Input
Amino acid sequence: MTRGPTIKHDYFFATQRRDRTRRRIAIALLALSALLIAFLADRWFFFTFYVEAARLGEFESKAWYQILRQTGDVRTWLIVALALAAHTIYRQFSGNGRALRAGSVIAVFAAPAAAGILAELLKLILGRERPAEEVMVEQGGQLLKSLEYQGHVWRGLFAGIYHDGQWFNASNLGLPSSHAAVSMAAAVTLSRLFPGTGVVLLPVALGCSLTRLWAGRHFASDVVLGMIVGWLAAVLVMRLLRRVR
Output
């Protein structure tokens, strides 16, 4: 039996690499464009979305608001990861269908955690303050906390690490939003593990970012950069854990 000629796949691999590179460049340009637009329109976004102190308490008392906001908390995704771990262990011991890989289960918590840590580190490095400072105002005979818009205030690079004689002072630093980063990382991770769920999870991540705008705690550019950080963290963590069984 004669051996046939070897088929060369170099051309196809090169084409796939070029297509992948083009997609990555397009996504990067889209993300940078969104960040630039948000930065230029930060003032407009703040005064459009910020809910005044008199109404903010009403917003925060709503269950839907708290649900959206808590998707930006790493502990939420720890619970989800533990539930998936229990499901995986059950599948392995019962022989009832295919179980998730350990790497996938770990990624559900590791990606949001990595995104949150990275966002906090970037806050220390970039050193931009939140859009407003807390002030006390009298309304109806009561003193209420309100926010006074201050615009873009930069302490300087690495100011969160050391500034005015203080080490690691991240108070009132907001770029990027760690809530947006955590929520987006979880949404991207789960939508990759369970195709189709992104239709629900990605809008939820956007909703988490909106809660930060309603509360006046972040600029639009804070949450856009946070979502970018979350996306990157999810992709990198899933690549690192891809082969963990």
